[in-house]
Design a protein that fits this description.
The protein is mostly helical. The chain has a single domain, classed as yst0336 like fold. Helix content is 53%, strand content 7%. The longest helix is centred in the first third of the chain and has 24 residues. It starts with a helix and ends with a helix.
Length: 141
């Protein structure tokens, strides 16, 4: 059976399942950051490609503290859409909904989390890891 997202509407069961999967991903990722320095972490087989492409296309985004307008406005979504779609055959679950920390120095909390695609998550977290912004998480533990 093939279902289109636009035909589904808001289904509470599906939303709950998404929330569980997204929270599990967030918890797992944060535990990894606590266990090892992000500088030594590889999130995909093409981290370097994603990082360079992100820097080229979105040089204004400060990965230490994200501004939701860089992701959520109609203009931002129009910029992100073709970028994300370039990873359809390169990154598993490239457009899955994922939780993303707003501030690099914080945990996944209600006021420090926003919704993003998996590709956006990779852009931000690969950058944070390469630049050492996630290193203090491991050092605190």
């Amino acid at each position: 059976m093939s279902l289109k997202a636009e035909d589904m509407g808001n289904m509470p069961e599906i939303e709950k399942q998404w929330a569980v999967v997204a929270m599990h991903h967030a918890e797992t990722y944060y535990k990894i950051l606590q266990a090892m320095d992000g500088k030594n972490l590889k999130l995909t087989k093409i981290d370097d490609e994603i990082y360079e492409h992100f820097k080229k296309m979105f040089p204004e985004i400060d990965v230490t503290e994200l501004n939701e307008k860089d992701f959520k406005t109609p203009e931002a979504k129009a910029r992100w859409r073709p970028f994300i779609n370039e990873y359809e055959n390169k990154v598993k679950d490239f457009n899955y909904g994922t939780l993303l920390r707003i501030r690099a120095d914080g945990d996944y909390t209600e006021d420090n989390t926003m919704f993003a695609t998996r590709t956006q998550f990779y852009c931000i977290e690969i950058s944070r890891n390469k630049l050492g912004y996630n290193s203090p998480i491991c050092q605190k533990k």
